[in-house]
Write a structure and sequence with these properties.
Number of helices: 1
Shape: globular
Low-confidence stretches: 4-19
Order of helices and strands: HEEEEEEEEEEEEEEEEEEE
Distance between the termini: 63 Å
Radius of gyration: 19 Å
Length: 235
């Protein structure tokens, strides 16, 4: 009787320990997409590989951390992440010497090319998302956030990041109804408890835009200048 009890307790503790562990993956310009991505010495190379990495194409029940190396530049390498299969909090941030610049995510495009977003995260659910300490520039959109089709995207935070030169391509600008470029865009879904704080934006069309339903939103301590359109847009 006692042996059965302790065996059951051990199984429970083991399960709790598994749930407490986090899944952490690293990306660096000196990495390789064939690496396992699980350490600073075995990082993945490209941001675009996130959509095809087997480790991210399964059901994930532990907190997920995506770490991008500081002082790195990613050109025409769009960051896209689908979170429908992640059932835990997600954090996207940096690693390396904090005295070095944030990693730069950049999309080069022509005068008539809308191009891709610097970063797009879809399928955001109730488990929470943090995007922190990044630098996005030269994109048709900066950070695009899309809620899950089946749940409310809760506890989403965008913080300590830089957005610059995010503008509609010149030949696409046709007043009086231009397609403004958004530094941060809630494109679809339902959001609850959204925080956008301590970010810096310059030479952009719109800093924050929402075409999604949002309940409880905090916009705190952001420094925004040189908006070609409305710095904030709600639809």
């Amino acid at each position: 009787m006692h042996g059965t009890y302790f065996c059951f307790a051990a199984v429970v503790l083991s399960s709790l320990a598994a749930l407490a562990r986090s899944e952490t993956f690293y990306i660096s310009p000196d990495g390789n997409d064939l690496n396992d991505g699980k350490s600073e010495s075995t990082p993945w190379l490209t941001l675009a590989s996130l959509l095809t990495q087997p480790a991210l194409m399964v059901e994930i029940y532990s907190p997920l951390n995506i770490m991008i190396r500081r002082n790195a530049t990613y050109v025409n390498d769009p960051f896209q992440l689908e979170l429908e299969s992640v059932h835990a909090p997600v954090k996207i941030t940096t690693y390396g010497d904090k005295k070095l610049p944030r990693p730069l995510l950049q999309q080069l495009r022509g005068l008539n090319d809308l191009g891709a977003a610097c970063m797009k995260i879809s399928g955001i659910s109730q488990y929470g998302l943090v995007v922190d300490n990044l630098h996005m520039g030269g994109c048709a959109q900066g950070l695009v956030l899309e809620g899950s089709a089946t749940s409310i995207a809760s506890d989403v935070m965008v913080s300590n990041s830089i957005f610059e030169d995010i503008r509609t391509p010149l030949l696409r600008y046709t007043p009086p109804n231009p397609r403004w470029a958004q530094a941060i865009w809630l494109s679809a879904g339902k959001f609850q408890n959204l925080t956008v704080q301590n970010n810096v934006a310059a030479r952009i069309d719109v800093f924050f835009s929402s075409t999604a339903f949002t309940n409880t939103m905090h916009l705190n301590g952001n420094t925004v200048q040189q908006c070609s359109g409305n710095c904030y847009s709600f639809g």
